[in-house]
Amino acid sequence: MTEVVNFLNDIIWSKPLVYLCLGVGLYFSVISRFLQVRHIKEMVKLLFSRETSDQGISSFQALAVSVSGRVGTGNIAGVATAIALGGPGAVFWMWTIAFLGAGSAYVESVLAQIYKVEQDGEYRGGPAYYIEKGLGMKWYAVLFAVSTIIGLGFFLPGVQSNSIAAGLKNAFGISSTMTGVGVVIFLGLIIFGGVRRISKFAEIVVPFMALAYVLVAVLIIGMNISELPRVIALIFKSAFAFEPAFAGMLGLAIAWGVKRGIYSNEAGQGTGPQAAAAAEVSHPVKQGLVQAFSVYIDTLFICSATAFMILITGMYNVEHPVSGFIVENMKGIPIGPEYTQAAVEAVLPGFGNAFVAISLLFFAFTTVLAYYYIAETNVAYLTQNGKNKWLIPALRVLIMGATFYGAIKPAKLAWAMGDVGVGLMAWLNIIAIIFLHRVAMKALKDYEVQKAKGLDPVFNPKKLGIKNADFWEKKIEKEKIKL
pTM of this prediction? Predict the structure, then answer.
């Protein structure tokens, strides 16, 4: 299994994917005139929209579901991995892909809203739907749906459960097997309740856990405030090979920063659009802006909190694949959540190990829930004709099995499997949104024109010349009949 997974990783996560993610994010940012900066006030305002219906969830609930998918083990263990294998400079490239990735997150989320459908009493949408409706390529849509089901149902859950198991074992001595069983039981109780139970759980848990984690990070940074200028300088100098110790790691800093950044914030990967499509909004751009902001929440807040805690306390190693250890402050400690636990424990003795383990439990568990919902959406796409309904219960069994498997397997294998899943989806989705991005830009212009007139924007695809937006066309007709 390890040899197969590593072989796939070498192919999927080649340099072209790293630079494609950066290049596409930059392109979308430029042509949208950096909407992630211009509309920051609007993003925050839209977060608290309470539009909802029997078919759709509120913008905040959609944000909570997508953030629960974005905020996971990548924010704790993933940041540690980026620093250990790419040096402190990898943090800068995580920030870069987050800033540029907000543009990609906007495009994919707006497309999900434009081409969504109402199916079995719920809104469904995402890359499979906009590939078929926007590009007219059914085979490509099916390929994405199948890849997503395999990636999120099999490859990715194990990364989350593995980190949960490692954190709890380090903090409380709980065996990985016991952790795996416990996580699977609670997972089953929630996923059998459908999207509404998932969104309700995420709406309550996600804001609380994110705020608590950031507050502890602020406390630790505040207690070591004199070290902050040095750490910031180290990140920037290492990112461009100006720090002598890390001069030979520029390529690794970019590669690991982008890879772990995408793994964490998922911008362009095609996961966020599924939750975006479920939101009840009057215009697709509303949810596009909300989802762009969710990338900031993930990387600029949560990942940065982890990075500063690790670097400011010096609880990390940096290992070059050829020359060996450049920094070895954590002898014998494996790369993972243990770095973050050691960082908090160093400043808050008797508290750090347990706090990070519990944070990781919530972060990673809600991420597995989001994985299930996204995979379920793609199963729903494949079963629109009413056939193969057995796939939903089969998916539930698969994701619970993969979650348990990941908890008891070595961390390296779990992370490698996760990278395969992320990379495969990213390739397929980024190519699709490159061809469809003009539709999202038309919607943005329409939204901005209506806002300039003092209106609450309402979407009409026919006026914009957007075809196959069947849901919105039917919605307009229904509203005309009511009037």
Answer: 0.85
